């Protein structure tokens, strides 16, 4: 049964890529286009050929085109070293994507908090 084991391996590789990438971006990449980012999620497909890295700029805000270009350049430089560090035969392609889901989750969370406050206010008035 390769199914469940394959998923576990992809999850484990994603976790290791997350740790390795966070360290290497902070310490090794000296690109002036890069600003500090928070890696919010790393997912790897089943055959380990592609790793999608979702990120947010630290301090919030939107990702600039310049930041994305810097991350794309860093991905090309870091693919080999990360593959070697994780002892993978074929290093996955690193694809950086701005994490829009995080902003959507925050909006839903804020909306739920607002509805909860309004509900409490109505109960207090009764």
Question: What's the arrangement of secondary structure elements?
Answer:
Elements: H1 2-27, E1 37-44, E2 50-57, H2 65-85, E3 93-98, H3 100-125
Parallel strand pairs: 2-3
Antiparallel strand pairs: 1-2
Q: What does the model show?
A:
The chain has 126 residues and is of the alpha+beta class. The protein has a single domain (2-99), classed as GMP Synthetase, Chain A, domain 3 (2-Layer Sandwich). Helix content is 58%, strand content 17%. It has helices at 2-27, 65-85, 100-125; strands spanning 37-44, 50-57, 93-98. Helix 2 (65-85) links the parallel strand 2 (50-57) and strand 3. Helix 1 (2-27) packs across helix 2 (65-85). The longest helix has 26 residues, at 2-27. The protein is elongated, with a radius of gyration of 19 Å. The N and C termini lie far apart (60 Å).
- How large a portion of the residues is in β-strands, by DSSP E? 15-25%
- In N-to-C order, the SSE pattern is HEEHEH
CATH class: Alpha Beta
Q: Residue ranges: pLDDT <50 for 5 or more in a row? A: none
Kindly provide the radius of gyration, computed on alpha-carbon positions and rounded to a whole number of angstroms. 19 Å
- The portion of residues assigned to helices is 55-70%
- State the CATH topology: GMP Synthetase, Chain A, domain 3
Gap between N and C termini:
60 Å
* Widest sheet, order of strands: 1-2-3
Quantity of strands, as a count: 3
What is the typical, i.e. mean, pLDDT? 87
CATH superfamily: K homology (KH) domain
